[in-house]
Write a structure and sequence with these properties.
The chain is mainly beta. It has no helices and 20 strands. It has an eight-stranded antiparallel beta barrel. Strands 11-12-13-14-15-16-19-20 form an eight-stranded antiparallel β-barrel.
Length: 254
């Protein structure tokens, strides 16, 4: 039987072992591959052309949904996970994919399930199970999800270290602001979407200017800041000027 997840239809792979946490992260029919929408209802900025192209849609699993917190989990066998939970759903990111689980009945704690894949937690402990494997996890670090109030005009925020860099994608137009080399270089450039795969929760952007080429790859995967350890729902790779910058990011809903 086939199913249509908001992410890769691949299982959670238990790193360092042959076990697989299988299970299809299917969603309700009306939510299948539904991307998040940029805030297109807002009026254009003063002086902007109304014919200016709008910012693209992005895969839903770049975003924490309605959850206000992102939580990192350290698991055995060795694997690190990120979750964002509400009463309506749990979004779960691993090194190999992203999944969306719905609430399930449980005697104590909180439990979410989709197909064979389930996530149960109580306090600082969690168990992730499927028909073929189990992870025993401990809560490590939580951080507040980024909001539009904190990042006005931004649909997606990414950053990395050594050297420090930041990328902000505008919420109303296909435009990227790149801040590189610890802030020594800053440029705002148009971009175009070359790959958009909602099922795989993956997106590739390329520069809209031939004289300043760049490529930005976004994937819904568990990501942790290399200095602080803060959890994020997306891995980001920026290629520009023959250099490659790696870091983490999060979609920011209106």
């Amino acid at each position: 039987m086939s199913c249509y997840p908001l992410s890769a239809a691949r299982p959670l792979v238990l790193l360092g072992t042959a076990l697989l946490l299988a299970g299809c992260a299917a969603t309700p029919d009306e939510a299948v591959t539904r991307p998040e929408v940029a805030d297109r209802g807002a009026p254009p900025e003063e002086g902007a052309s109304e014919a200016q192209p709008a910012a693209p849609l992005m895969p839903s699993l770049f975003f924490p949904g309605d959850a206000g917190t992102l939580t990192a989990w350290r698991c055995t066998p060795a694997q690190d996970l990120v979750t964002a939970a509400t009463e309506e759903e749990l979004r779960l990111w691993s090194a190999h994919g992203a999944f969306r689980l719905l609430p399930a009945v449980v005697a104590s704690g909180a439990r979410y399930q989709q197909g064979d894949l389930s996530f149960w937690n109580k306090g600082d402990e969690a168990v992730v199970e499927s028909a073929t494997g189990r992870l025993d996890c401990t809560r490590d670090l939580s951080q507040k999800a980024l909001t539009r109030r904190q990042r006005p005009g931004t649909m997606f925020h990414a950053r990395g270290n050594e050297p420090g860099w930041v990328v902000n994608l505008a919420s109303h137009r296909p435009e990227a602001t790149l801040v590189l080399d610890y802030g020594e270089r800053e440029m705002t450039l148009p971009y175009r979407v070359t790959t958009l795969d909602n099922d795989e929760a993956r997106m590739i952007l390329a520069s809209g200017r031939a004289d300043i080429p760049f490529e930005l790859r976004l994937e819904a995967r568990a990501c942790f800041d290399s200095m602080s350890g803060q959890p994020f729902p997306a891995r980001v790779t920026l290629s520009i000027d023959g250099e490659q910058y790696r870091g983490c990011g999060q979609g920011i809903a209106p």
